[in-house]
Design brief:
By secondary structure, the chain is an alpha+beta fold. The protein has 6 helices and 8 strands. It has one domain.
C-alpha cells in the first residue's frame, strides 16, 4: 500500500482583513483625508477609484495654480493652503507623483464646475518655488468627487455625513465634531 503524500502549501488568505492590516497594505501617502472648505474627502478612496479606472494624466500650469492658491503672496487669492501645510515637508515631496484634482459641481451645467487640488498642495508649493512649468494631475469627475466625500456642509450651517466604505461608525469619533 502506498502512502498518501501530504501537500505542503501556504494557508489560504483570510476573507476578512483587519483594518490594521489593510492600513499597512495601503501606501502611507494615500492614508489621509483632505479638508476643502468644510468638505472632508477620503483620499485613500480617491486612489482606489483611480486604480479601478485608470486614466491619462493632465498637465496643470504651476504658475496659474500657484497664484490661485496664494503662493505669489496675494492675500486675496480665492484658495489657500490651509493650517496643516508644512513648507519643510514640501521641499521633500516627489514631483513625479500626479496631483489629484476634484471636480466640484456648483450648478446645473458642467460649465459651472470647478477644480481644486484634493491631494498634492505640497507638490504644487515645491514646483512653484522651483519655477517648474507644469505638474501631472489626475482629474476626478464630479460623481467620483461626491463618492469620496465623507462630510459636506449644508447651506443652513448643518453638516451631512455621507456613508463611506472606509469610515465605519466606530471611526467617526476621530472625525472633526460637527454642529447638530
Amino acid at each position: 500500500m502506498g502512502t498518501k503524500k501530504r501537500r505542503r502549501g501556504t494557508k489560504p488568505p483570510s476573507k476578512f482583513v483587519s483594518s490594521q492590516d489593510r492600513a499597512q497594505s495601503v501606501p502611507r501617502h494615500e492614508q489621509q483625508y483632505a479638508l476643502v472648505g468644510g468638505t472632508l474627502l477620503d483620499i485613500e478612496h480617491a486612489h482606489r477609484l483611480l486604480r479601478a479606472a485608470p486614466r491619462a494624466t493632465e498637465r496643470i500650469d504651476v504658475e496659474a495654480w500657484g497664484c490661485m492658491y496664494g503662493l505669489d503672496g496675494n492675500p486675496h487669492s480665492p484658495v489657500g493652503l490651509g493650517p496643516q501645510f508644512d513648507p519643510v515637508h514640501a521641499r521633500t515631496v516627489d514631483l513625479t507623483r500626479p496631483l489629484i484634482l476634484g471636480t466640484f459641481a456648483t450648478g446645473p451645467s458642467r460649465d459651472l464646475d470647478f477644480l481644486l487640488i484634493i491631494d498634492g498642495s505640497h507638490r504644487l508649493f515645491r514646483a512653484f518655488t522651483e519655477a517648474r512649468d507644469s505638474l501631472p494631475a489626475h482629474v476626478l469627475t464630479a460623481t467620483e468627487t461626491r463618492a469620496i466625500t465623507v462630510v459636506h456642509p449644508l447651506q443652513n450651517g448643518a453638516t451631512t455625513w455621507y456613508p463611506s466604505r472606509r469610515t465605519p461608525t466606530a471611526d467617526r469619533s476621530a472625525m472633526p465634531s460637527t454642529p447638530s
